[in-house]
Write a structure and sequence with these properties.
By secondary structure, the protein is an alpha/beta fold. The chain is about 30% helix and about 20% strand. It has ten helices and 13 strands. Strand 12 and strand 13 form a beta hairpin. Helix 1 crosses helix 3 (about 90-105) and helix 9 (about 255-265) runs parallel beside helix 10 (about 280-290).
């Protein structure tokens, strides 16, 4: 067994802005694990919010490569979870191991996992944070889409909300503040969120301010993103959040994502499946995890100037499961 990791950069078709800043490209890491003439691939997006960089995640993967290539005992996905923390590095390796097993066994990942055959899922399209009139224009351009996700977190968020709703009068809307609000701002925005028919608010407060949610109204359901990584922290979210956003770069791969989904549903949470801005290779395993999610946010490839070969197919039915040429 051999392991390789390489850095890749994908220019974006337009500037992508959230409350923490803007970007014009996305930098990903691709892990490739080869054995018996087969190669499995996995992609991750290191995220500075979680103390990650391309360099630090590369080092993590390279350190783990020595154990993966040691013949006795062979490292499987369960052992990987024991030896690596949740995060981008483990995600790339975990998904590469799933892909490798699928290729070696000539079975799809969903079959190996004991799941039903995946179907297309409707995904949100993100309206990047900008001036209200520009967000209205962008919303109007994508008003044919059934679900829009609005990035907020600025001083004139009411105007942004009004502008997007004016631009897309029939689309469902979910909102992502990326930890950009205070409790007072959230209270002030609640009536507008409710009046404009917003279906969900994602991570309104900083993750270390979760305790304030105990005292705040929830006229619109709230989703944990930065506050939810793995099953380990799930119990602390009960009573504070209605949804959790499962992202493979947070869970450390598809293995934990599926386990988190099941445990969260049993605890009464509704499910959202999202991702960082990456290529179709990074979205492919998330489509498997997203099969019974209420909301899906896997529009990353739609933001790229050019995707990978054999990229995911997007149409009016949503984002389709990956082909074997891409992953799984």
């Amino acid at each position: 067994m051999t392991v390789q990791v390489k850095q890749e950069s994908f220019p974006l078709a337009q500037v992508f802005t959230i409350s923490r800043g803007s970007r014009t490209e996305t930098r990903v890491l691709t892990a490739e694990i080869s054995a018996e003439g087969f190669t499995g691939r996995g992609e991750c997006v290191p995220y500075p919010r979680y103390g990650e960089s391309v360099e630090s995640v590369t080092r993590q993967i390279e350190r783990m490569a020595a154990e993966l290539t040691h013949p006795d005992p062979a490292i499987n996905r369960a052992a990987l979870a024991e030896r690596m923390p949740a995060g981008a590095a483990r995600n790339a390796l975990d998904c590469a191991l799933w892909d490798l097993e699928a290729k070696r066994s000539n079975r799809a990942v969903w079959e190996i996992a004991g799941l039903n055959r995946p179907k297309p899922v409707v995904t949100a399209y993100t309206i990047s944070l900008d001036e209200p009139h520009k967000m209205r224009s962008e919303a109007a351009k994508h008003a044919h889409r059934p679900l829009l996700k609005i990035k907020l977190g600025g001083w004139n968020d009411v105007e942004r909300l009004e502008a997007v709703r004016a631009g897309a009068t029939t689309s469902d809307i979910i909102v992502d503040a990326n930890e950009g609000w205070t409790a007072a701002v959230y209270r002030e925005l609640c009536p507008t969120l409710q009046r404009l028919g917003v279906k969900m608010v994602e991570q309104p407060l900083p993750a270390d301010h979760d305790q304030y949610l105990n005292e705040l109204p929830r006229p619109v359901p709230i989703c944990a993103d930065e506050s939810c990584h793995t099953r380990a922290g799930l119990s602390e979210l009960i009573g504070r959040y209605d949804y959790i956003n499962i992202k493979l770069d947070k869970t450390g791969g598809l293995t934990e994502a599926l386990a988190l989904r099941n445990e969260a549903q049993q605890a009464g949470f509704r499910i959202m499946v999202g991702s960082m801005v990456g290529s179709s290779l990074g979205m492919a395993p998330a489509v498997i995890a997203a099969q019974d999610a209420v909301f899906v946010d896997l529009d990353g490839p739609l933001w790229l100037a050019e995707d990978r070969p054999h990229g995911l197919r997007y149409d009016t039915a949503g984002v389709h499961p990956p082909t074997a040429e891409l992953w799984g």
